[in-house]
Amino acid sequence: MFQYVNIRVIRVIHFGNYLRKFITTSGLQKYSNSSQNEQTTLDISNNDKQDMPNIKSRDMNYWTQHETDILKNAVFKHGNKWTYITKEYFKSSRKPETLCQKWKTIRLSESRPSYYNRWSAEEIKLLINGVEKYGVGNWTEISKLIKTKDSYQIQKKWKQVSKKKSGKWTKEEDSLLLKLIAEYGGKWNIISDFIDRPYNSCQTRYQTLSSKPWTPEENSKLRDAILKYNHDWDKIMKNFPDRTLYEIKKYYWNNPKANPNANTGRWKAEEVKKFWEAFEIYGKKWINISKDVGTRTPKQCHMFFRTREYTNEIGSQ
């Protein structure tokens, strides 16, 4: 049995040697002849191409507006007969499955028109309000405010908005801001790109530059509105058609006389206790501290902290 196996192994080895010899002689010669024939065919094809009219090559993945319009008209007439449409309307330059996929994209863009488009001023405003309300990172909650964008788009846009320059405005920036507003009106997304400042920063700065001093009558009206509506700003704003929400809130938080719940005298022991308890929780977030204290505005809380801080510095010297 072992002798039989050895003979078979020897025969396989001899056959392998014969096969290698065949490949290195006649096999390679045939391959060489075949390559020459292919080269000749290729040369003939190239000669034929020279006689053909020049046709601009284009990226088959890119759709022109003309092609998109053709597809819309074809689908309107023939429905989803993709094989027929590709032959009759696109001369087979687009595959049926490509037409089908493109049509799905068109329908999606039309059902949510601003999904693929540039962010509008209103959408950016909703984004900023959402971040102020829910905080950075709560993109799912914020996306509920912006129906035309998903959470990924919102997160990406916020990175762009928050990366822009911050800090004190220069006179040159103020001058440029006023010129841009005269030219573009309230298109804050365009103005923001020009000045390289966040959308809300441009809007707030303009409100500061253009705001009028508050009159005693307005102060009394705001105080009465707070007593009646508490912090229902939508209702309060109806009493001030010439003021923005930002102006009203800013004046309210910074002026104790406009706040019927705010004390203007010396801080009481109970107020001081509430202040430091809130400070342990919120740090220097004066609006939050003001809400916990209940009888002091954010500005009063800030000034109280600065006074205590200054007193401690003097005492340590």
From TrEMBL:
Pfam families named in the record: Myb_DNA-bind_6, Myb_DNA-binding
InterPro entries: Homeodomain-like_sf, Myb-like_DNA-bd, Myb_dom, SANT/Myb, SANT_dom
Domain SANT residues, every copy: 114-154, 209-260, 266-312
Superkingdom per UniProt: Eukaryota
Example of a GO cellular component annotation carried by this entry: snRNA-activating protein complex
Keyword Oxidoreductase (UniProt): no
GO-annotated biological processes: snRNA transcription by RNA polymerase II; snRNA transcription by RNA polymerase III
Keywords, in A-Z order: DNA-binding, Nucleus, Transcription, Transcription regulation
Alphabetical list of PROSITE patterns matching this protein: HTH_MYB, MYB_LIKE, SANT
Any one GO molecular-function label of the UniProt entry: RNA polymerase II cis-regulatory region sequence-specific DNA binding
Residue span, HTH myb-type domain: 118-166, 167-214, 259-301
Location of the Myb-like domain: 63-107, 117-160, 161-210, 213-252, 259-309
The protein's name: 211_t:CDS:1
Lineage of the species this protein comes from: Eukaryota, Fungi, Fungi incertae sedis, Mucoromycota, Glomeromycotina
